[in-house]
Amino acid sequence: MNDDSLLRQLAGAARERTAEERERLDERWDRLAAGELSPEEEAELRAQAATSSAGREALAAFTPLGAEFEARMARLAGVGRAAAPAAPTEPVEPAGKTLPFRRRRAGLGLGVGLAAAAAIAAGLALGLARPAPFPLYQGSPLGGGSQTVRDPEAPRSFSPGETLVWTLQPPTPVGETVEARAFLAGPKGELRPWAATVQASAQGAVQIAGNLPRKLAPGPWTLWVVVGRNGKLPDAGELSRHTGEATPRARNWMALQKTLQIQ
User: What local confidence, expressed as pLDDT, does residue 20 receive?
Assistant: First the structure.
């Protein structure tokens, strides 16, 4: 296809679009919809519209629906008004002004949406910032004292004032600062703090070492060691509420116990 042929096709397409626009914008369509055309003008307009698809579409759009249709719509409108309660009358705003209550409602909807999004973001941030539960430590056999039987799980015997050592290990490196406290529970179950030396490694392992009090009554005693995040350890009162549990555990701490026999 050469340039002249292409230009002729483009010019023809432009003329067709111009004719379609002229048909759509003909002022006689408005007069037809209003019923103001004379019979001759209406016949001429219908004949012209039949020559193109745009004209036929315009004719269908602007042709009045008829008196019977309008009367039926009026009767339906009257029934609807009789059945429905009267709506409260609102003050009419001057033309050209935006209704203020619409603006406030739109702003309120936007504000509520932003607040909800902020709350969701805050909840997600809180969930992401919340630390994982403190890991469950394992305790090694007690060091010091004496053992009269070969069973490693049997209570180890200690004398008052004798040195006791216990090492607790996490399953994996903790990666944060931990601290620990030691308690002794007597035959009656009461907890008393034990001033043992506590050493914690960078991986979270903890070693408790110290001399047992010299005034411990003979009989079975329980050594309690609570390990947790720095500043999150429970006191003796809170820990005593968990002494009936085998391995008390909370989000920020956990506790292990070991039975020993005081000679």
Answer: 60
Q: In this structure, are strands 156-158 and 253-262 parallel, antiparallel, or unpaired?
A: parallel
What backbone torsions phi and psi does residue 166 show, to the nearest 5 degrees?
-140, 130
pLDDT digits (tens, 9 = 90+) for 119-157: 555 555 554 556 688 999 999 999 988 766 666 677 889
Which residues face 197 on adjacent strands?
209
Q: How far apart are CA 158 and CA 218, in angstroms?
A: 10
In this prediction, residue 99 has a pLDDT band, given cuts at 50, 70 and 90, of very low
Better-scored residue on pLDDT, 113 or 167: 167
Strand order in the sheet with 197-200: 138-139, 163-169, 206-211, 197-200
Of the candidates 257, 235, 259, 236, which has an alpha carbon nearest to the alpha carbon of residue 246? 257
Question: What tens digit of pLDDT does each residue of 59-85 get?
Answer: 777 777 666 656 665 675 565 455 445
Q: In degrees rounded to 5, what are phi and psi of residue 170? A: -80, 160
Determine the Cα–Cα distance for residues 215 and 194; give it in Å rounded to an integer.
12
The one-letter amino acid at 64: P
Extents of the domains making up the chain: 3-69, 138-262
Q: CB within 8 A of 240, min separation 6: which ones?
A: 189, 190, 191
3-class state of residue 192 by DSSP: strand
Please identify which residue in the block is written with the tokens 């042709």: 63
CATH number of 138-262: 2.60.40.10
What is the C-alpha to C-alpha distance for residues 25 and 160, in angstroms, rounded to an integer? Answer: 110
Strands 219-229 and 253-262: antiparallel
* CA 93 – CA 6 distance, rounded (Å): 56
**In this predicted model, which residue has the larger pLDDT, 9 or 215?**
215
